[in-house]
Amino acid sequence: MPDDYSTTPQDKNTIKALWHLQKLILDTLDFKQVVQRIVDGLLTELGYLQLGYRIIVLTLVDETNNELRRISLSQTEEALKAQQASAVPFQEIKIPLSAKDNLLIKTLNEKRPYVTHYWPDIFTPILTSEQAVANQTAAGIKTSMIYPVIVKEKSIGVLIFSMIKEEKDVSEVEKELINGFTDIVGLAVQNSRLYSALEDTTVQLSRANDRLHELDTLKSEFVSVASHELRTPMTAIKSYLWMALAGKGGNINDKQKYYLERAYISTDRLIKLVNDLLNVSRIESGKLSMEPAKLSVEQFVDEVISEVKPRADELGIRIINGYNPQEPLPPVLGDSDKLKEVVINIIGNSLKFTPKDGSITFSYETSGGFVTTHVKDTGEGIAPEDLPKLFQKFGLVRESYVTNQKASQGTGLGLYISKAIIDLHGGKMWAESEGHGKGATFSFSLPVFNQEALDQAMKNKKENGLGVIHSTID
User: Which one, out of 95, 214, 235, 249, has a CA that is 20 to 30 A from the CA of 166?
Assistant: First the structure.
């Protein structure tokens, strides 16, 4: 008695199997697994193998090369026979999208199913008619049904269902289930493609990030080495210029003195730039060494004021230390030299942008375990939109706090370095201004001294030689 391939599984069992098949296919996002489960699942999970289906092929559009490519093939005996008989390997069968006579391309373009009993219809122009018929004969295939795979109204490929029975033996229920199956296929392919693209992008971003980190490390090393190499000869040049100006090499006339003074000032500016670059390199590489100790804020501020007072007097600017001895401040934990550098940077900026007869006033407050120092000047002020730029590297603010002329006198690194130093102390630094002509206030807070924090900082110093109080720079 001949095999009866017209019997359809019971509806209840079929629906249950269809749900199971959907879960099986959508359960993974790996593209290779998804496409293989697609062509095997219908045969094994829905029992279509018993219905006479023998070969299922998934093809997808390759938009880059304008062709329809074979992606996966069911693992059956008939599929193996067809491959062995084929003059062209399975993966190399690529149908040009321009091959309008190919039934796969028609299905793709018209978005509707087709049926054929003649394999040359689906292999032209890659195989000759004789070669295609030979494949079909070897596999014992009588009928092939071709369905489009559609995602968001766009055909992305086609599925080929080949069987060893005639078209008249295919029930409407079989066709409906296959139609529903292609919807699952479209969703599964789209999801796995998106996931694969995301994985590829993640890998590329990771590699790019590693490369950027490597380049940043090389940049920091270069800046550090170059700065060291520049600082030594520049310091020697500055010393010789000073000796020449002091008459150590003999008397000099006014014209010679003028040129030597210009050279001395420029050399001093270059040395400061080199030192700033070195500090930035150390900060960004986590190698800025600190000497933490119990400090008096008013004392190190007063020492800095004493250093810069002669320059302030020359400019006609008063520096006022508003510290009240009757209300002593609690000690803080910090590196005296680094904190003096912060105060010098703040005063230096205020001196640049405060006119004659102006003032720079220091005031203090204690709150929430921090001592905050405010430095208010009566200078040019800062536009609100420029405030966020102040603490960026090379953060020169044109036409506002830093004018074109005065900007050229600085590196734009001083406030960046100052904020980084305060951050390493576990404090905060910020600036405020009501706008042009209304002055500016720079503030920084430092944690009140406690023995536990000092012990931890000294432990850091012993372990890595850095002695940082707070390791994170915001």
Answer: 95
CA 214 to chain centre: 14
Task: Provide DSSP, 268-298.
Answer: HHHHHHHHHHHHHHHHHTT------EEE-HH
**What is the spatial distance between Cα 334 and Cα 342, in angstroms, rounded to a whole number?**
12
What's the pLDDT tens digit per position in 105-116?
999 999 999 999
Tens-place pLDDT, residues 327-342? 889 999 888 999 999 9
- Spatial distance between the Cα atoms of 423 and 403, rounded to a whole number of angstroms: 28
The structural domains of the chain, ordered by start, are 11-202 (3.30.450.40), 211-284 (1.10.287.130), 293-464 (3.30.565.10)
Question: Which pTM was predicted?
Answer: 0.51
Q: 3-class SS at 411?
A: coil
For residue 317, the SS3 value is: coil
Count of CB atoms within 10 A of residue 1's CB? Answer: 3
Classify strands 318-321 and 359-367 as parallel, antiparallel or unpaired. parallel
What single string gives the DSSP state of each residue in 71-107?
Answer: EEE--SHHHHHHHHH-SS-GGG-EEETT-TTSHHHHH
Classified as helix, coil or strand, 141 is: coil
Instruction: Give the whole-angstrom CA distance, residue 228 versus residue 205.
Output: 34
Residues 120/111, Cβ–Cβ less than 8 Å: no
State residue 460's pLDDT score: 64
pLDDT digits (tens, 9 = 90+) for 273-283: 777 777 777 77
The H-or-E segment that residue 363 falls in is strand 359-367
Give the residue among 194, 158, 139, 189 at the shortest CA–CA distance from 37: 189
Distance in angstroms (rounded) separating the CA atoms of residues 115 and 6: 17
pLDDT digits (tens, 9 = 90+) for 337-371: 999 999 999 999 899 899 999 999 999 999 988 99
- Sheet-wide strand order for 370-377: 318-321, 359-367, 370-377, 440-447, 428-432
- What is the per-residue pLDDT for 125? 95
